[in-house]
Write a structure and sequence with these properties.
With 182 residues, this protein is of the alpha+beta class. It has helices at 12-20, 23-26, 96-115, 163-180; strands spanning 2-5, 28-47, 56-63, 69-71, 80-83, 123-142, 148-154. The chain is elongated, with a radius of gyration of 19 Å.
Length: 182
């Protein structure tokens, strides 16, 4: 399936080394895979005064699994279209409209908090929306209790242990497993 992605920047070998160092805490490391999580990237234009000449622009990312939003600080120019096996893609569960509404509300909340005393009228307009997939490494461990434990690694930054990403992956894998067993 062809999708837009931010390409993996943290190499597999480096990730495996880092995950193996966590075996004492998590159990025996036995497998790793990359999965792609769909995010809506919303580009908004906004103004806070009627006479404002310069329009502000910001990008907000909304995950399509939990529907959480965050301001995006990176560069969109690294996005590429690639062929990825459907086995490595999590299925969106949050509708576009719901994600767009949540992103707009978060932008308005942030504008209000930042420019409280200068606001005359907040005008927000959705300029562009793109569905882009972010890569995550998932390391699998077998615990002493004979259960499977996962560790999620952001394949762009190398960050391990982000609670939001872990929730997205766990929920996304449940949905994927449920649909596969039907």
């Amino acid at each position: 399936m062809k999708i837009l992605v931010f390409p993996v920047t943290v190499p597999l070998e480096e990730t495996v080394k880092r995950l193996k160092k966590r075996e004492k805490k998590l159990g025996e490391f036995f497998s790793i895979e990359v999965v792609y999580v769909p995010f809506w990237f919303f580009t908004f234009n906004y103004t806070i005064r009627k006479d404002q000449k310069k329009v502000g622009t910001t990008v907000i990312a909304a995950d399509t699994i939990l529907g959480e939003v965050a301001f995006f600080q990176g560069k969109m120019k690294n996005v590429k279209e690639v062929e990825v096996s459907e086995n490595h893609i999590l299925t969106p569960t949050v509708k576009f409209e719901e994600a767009a509404k949540k992103a707009e509300e978060e932008l308005k909340r942030q504008i209000f908090n930042k420019f409280l005393w200068r606001i005359q009228k907040i005008m927000v307009k959705l300029k562009e929306a793109q569905l882009i997939y972010l890569p995550f490494w998932i390391g699998y461990y077998k615990t002493r209790e004979n259960t499977i434990q996962i560790e999620v690694v952001n394949a762009l930054s190398g960050e391990i242990g982000d609670a939001w990403y872990e929730k997205i992956i766990c929920e996304g894998l449940k949905v994927k497993h449920t649909r596969a067993s039907m």
